[in-house]
Amino acid sequence: MGERITFKRPDGKEAAGYLAKAAKAGAPGLVVIQEWWGLNEQIKGITDRFAAAGFNALAPDLYAGRVVPYHDAPAANAEMTSLNFLDATDQICRGAAQKLTAEGAAKVGVTGFCMGGAMTILAAARVPEFSAGVCFYGLPPAAAAGPKDVKIPIEGHFALHDDWCTPQAVMDFAKGLVDAHKPAEFFSYEAHHGFMNEARPDVHQAKAAAEAWDRTLKFFRKHLG
């Protein structure tokens, strides 16, 4: 359904990504941020699903073509730790949002998974083009972005069995959003980290994934139109 495209970053450099368009003109935009594995077929599939649901969806390629196989977590960690998160947020993800606006989207949202979930929070704090965000099992370091820094309505989906985004860390972040009077909804599921990824049967949880997907679409339709 989608195609690989290039687009301009705010600094004028070129970035690439996978764009899938909705059937109707004037659809709201959505930036979809990859897991630490890269812009793989599963992320492209999620982007296609968002397009089928009525959004012009663009998944930026943060690793410039590099895709890590699921069995190689050390390589994925190396790619993630070498990524300049602030540059990726301020330049690549913001450039993707500006591309969708130029394509006719009146409002643009942001969502991401794992590493992309953490970047969704960063983008919610740093990118003025975004109107709403949905984070999947990812939180940034407190020094990079905390609850008080979030500037848009945010929804979060997390696993109760997660050694990275632990239930306590999620509870603390959610409480921080409430204390800062930020419009937010967080949900936790009887599942493991990565439960949305149907290409990984070791962690995929169909019931949790279906519930989170339904809530995500409702949230974006409410805030993006």
Task: Kindly describe this structure.
The protein has 225 residues and is α/β, with parallel strands linked by helices. Helices cover 37% and strands 24% of the residues. The chain has six helices and eight strands. Strands 1-2-4-3-5-6-7-8 form an eight-stranded mixed beta sheet, with helices on both faces. The chain starts with a strand and ends with a helix.
Q: What layout of secondary structure does this protein have?
A:
Layout: E1 3-8, E2 14-20, E3 29-33, H1 41-52, E4 56-60, H2 73-82, H3 85-102, E5 108-113, H4 115-126, E6 130-136, E7 154-161, H5 167-179, E8 184-192, H6 206-224
Parallel strand pairs: 3-4, 3-5, 5-6, 6-7, 7-8
Antiparallel strand pairs: 1-2, 2-4
Q: Number of DSSP strands?
A: 8
The main β sheet shows up as: 8 strands, mixed
Number of helices: 6
Structural class: alpha/beta
Instruction: Fill in the CATH topology.
Output: Rossmann fold
Please give the radius of gyration in angstroms.
16 Å
> Distance between termini?
22 Å
Unreliable segments of 5+ consecutive residues: none
The CATH class assignment is Alpha Beta
* Shape summary: globular
| Proportion of strand residues | 15-25%
- CATH 4th-level superfamily: Alpha/Beta hydrolase fold, catalytic domain
CATH architecture assignment: 3-Layer(aba) Sandwich
User: How confident is the prediction overall: mean pLDDT?
Assistant: 97
Order of helices and strands: EEEHEHHEHEEHEH
Give short descriptive properties of this protein.
single chain, 225 residues, alpha/beta, Rossmann fold, 6 helices
